[in-house]
Specification:
- The chain has 92 residues and is α+β, with helices and mostly antiparallel strands.
- Helices cover 27% and strands 43% of the residues.
- The protein contains 2 helices and 4 strands; from the N terminus they run E-E-E-E-H-H.
- Strands 1-2-3-4 form a 4-stranded antiparallel sheet, with no helix packed on it.
- The longest helix has 17 residues.
Length: 92
């Protein structure tokens, strides 16, 4: 993508020297969600992966994330909640 403008960016630590970024970008082609991982080196950050997804797919992505949350909760991977129902109620 060229001439992109960042409208939103949120960074998350995923290890001692790694982070993930979720963002909203605007370019001549439209609005895109940015999903990126990067490794922080001694002098500068090195992008490990970078994916642009059309923002129009956001409703479908949200449905997919809800299903992933349900699966993780059922497996006990969401430690802060007893089950998927408790997790969903916390989001209401």
């Amino acid at each position: 993508m060229s001439a992109e403008v960042s409208l939103f960016e949120k960074r998350f630590a995923i290890g001692a020297n790694k982070e993930a970024t979720v963002g909203l970008m605007e370019s001549k082609q439209g609005l895109f969600l940015l999903l990126q991982t990067q490794k922080n080196g001694d002098k500068e950050a090195v992008v490990a992966s970078k994916t642009f997804i059309p923002a129009a797919l956001l409703p479908e992505i949200k449905r997919a994330i809800n299903e992933i949350e349900r699966i993780l909760s059922d497996r006990g991977e969401l430690d802060d909640y007893d089950n998927a129902q408790a997790y969903q109620q916390s989001r209401s």
